[in-house]
Amino acid sequence: MASLDRSLIAGLSLFEGIAVADLDRIVGQARSIRIARGQSVFEQEQEARSFFLLLDGHVRVVKSTPAGHEVTVRYIGPGELMGIAGALGRTTYPANALAAVDCVVLAWPSHLWPTFATSFPSLSANTYRMVGSRLQDAHTRVIEMSTEQVEQRVANALLKLVKQSGKKTEEGILIDFPISRQDIAEMTGTTLHTVSRLLSAWEDQGLVKSGRQRVVVVEPHRLVVVAEARGSKS
Predict the structure, then answer these.
(1) How far apart are CA 52 and CA 5, in angstroms?
(2) Rounded CA gap, 126 and 151, in Å?
(3) Are 183 and 189 in contact (CB under 8 A)?
(4) Which one of 100, 155, 204, 209 is separated from 161 by 20 to 30 angstroms, measured CA to CA?
(5) Could you give the dihedral angle defined by the CA atoms of residues 145, 42, 23 and 165, in that order, rounded to the nearest 10 degrees?
(6) Beta-carbon contacts of residue 131 (< 8 Å; ≥ 6 apart)
């Protein structure tokens, strides 16, 4: 199998501060995998044999509850690590990771993580900074669920997705991967009916355009006003 080129990772913030020779060492131990839309990268409670770097595409992270419900936790974008169970002190994956679109990932055996963390301090620091940011996002969501109205939560979720993966189009800023109203409902702790009602109302007001697994934010500044305003609970 042909060796992978360090250019795949050299420009990523995760690998800032790492010498060229070390980048070659890191990427030389990875394998490239293409994952079709809808397929799993890994599954919740599966033995964590590999950790992954998303090179292209978007991955939806889904948590299954004991009652059998599925909750969309977050979306992973290009340049992010995922499945780093070892960095969390786990031997199994904490959630399901599904390709939201066709994806390309790099995969390393999990047993390499302790060596990487020791040998490349900047990679370790950048990774734990990323983990910390995700934990902060999770804490923010808990606070939002407890203190914000449903309109605020949905507006904030759309604005975060736009910031993460927004693509300018003639219509507005497209969330550049398929996302359903049910996904938005799961992310914001509300119902499909409520999200559908809100998006329909916002379409009438010219704030957004939406379709099957597609959302375009037409007026992001007005959506910010909604995110900061008060609304009725749902």
Answers:
(1) 16
(2) 34
(3) no
(4) 204
(5) -40
(6) 84, 87, 88
Q: Are 231 and 152 in contact (CB under 8 A)?
A: yes
Cβ distance 179 to 161 under 8 Å?
yes
For CA atoms 48, 53, 55, 57, the dihedral sign is positive
- DSSP-assigned letter for residue 111: G
**Which residue intervals of 35-176 are DSSP H helices?**
113-119, 121-147, 150-165
- What whole-number distance in Å separates Cα of residue 112 and Cα of residue 109? 6
Please tell me whether residue 117 adopts helix, strand or coil conformation: helix
Residue 233 has pLDDT above 60, yes or no: no
Q: Nearest 10 degrees: CA dihedral of 43, 25, 55, 91?
A: 20
185-227 tens-digit pLDDT: 988 989 999 999 999 999 999 999 998 889 999 999 999 999 9
In angstroms, how far is the first alpha carbon of the chain from the final one?
Answer: 54
Neighbouring C-alpha atoms within 13 Å toward the C-beta of 68: 0
Name the residue with tokens 């978007």: 58
Q: How do residues 6-24 score in pLDDT, each as one tens digit?
A: 889 998 999 988 999 999 9
| Nearest-angstrom CA–CA distance, 32 and 6 | 12
- Could you list the beta-strand ranges (E) of the chain: 31-35, 40-42, 50-56, 59-64, 70-76, 81-82, 96-99, 103-109, 166-168, 173-175, 208-211, 214-217
